């Protein structure tokens, strides 16, 4: 079999995927644990933030990150307009913050009123207090991919905020729920 034939997705879904196939893809994709983070940005003195688990380090030199955002979401539109964003990697203890910002229908006004944060030193975007790590990022490219925007950016500032302790664990998303590494 030629490599091109093996990669021809149209052979797998000749008419496009059915809802059952989409659901199965989602279920199988949930078998991979991923870190949970909060992405934030600021436009015209209004904060926008959301919980994400689809992000990755693209390069160490120069430090570059990518985040995948549903294209019609408030956060995707805000990040695309603002040109900068912050990504705060959460601890297992920050599950309430992750739940709040993953909930549909969160308010536009006062979105971060119940979350402890500070302003990033270079972008002024919200950095979640107590995060395992944070990155301030300037967008360098946005790519449309199916229903999502892949936002790529250069890291302009980074650090850590969590106080180390023996049972410190990242917040993970696995099997459709939040998990931790350490009991």
Features:
about 180 residues; alpha+beta; Pnp Oxidase, Chain A; 7-stranded antiparallel β-sheet; 12 strands
Plain-language structure description:
The protein has one domain (33-180): Electron Transport, Fmn-binding Protein, Chain A (Pnp Oxidase, Chain A). It has helices at residues 3-7, 9-12, 19-29, 74-82, 95-102; strands at 34-35, 37-43, 46-52, 55-60, 63-70, 84-89, 117-119, 126-128, 133-145, 148-159, 171-174, 177-180. It is globular. With 183 residues, the chain is an alpha+beta fold. The longest helix is centred in the N-terminal third of the chain and has 11 residues, at 19-29.
The CATH first-level class comes to: Mainly Beta
Beta-strand content bin:
35-45%
Strands ordered across the widest β-sheet: 3-2-6-9-10-5-4
Largest beta sheet, briefly? 7 strands, antiparallel
* CATH topology value: Pnp Oxidase, Chain A
List unreliable stretches of 5+ residues: none
Give me the strand/helix succession. HHHEEEEEHEHEEEEEE
Tell me the overall shape: globular
CATH superfamily: Electron Transport, Fmn-binding Protein, Chain A
Mean pLDDT: 88
Radius of gyration: 18 Å
What is the share of helical residues?
Answer: 10-25%
Total count of domains: 1
Count of runs of 4 or more consecutive helical residues: 5
Distance between the termini: 47 Å
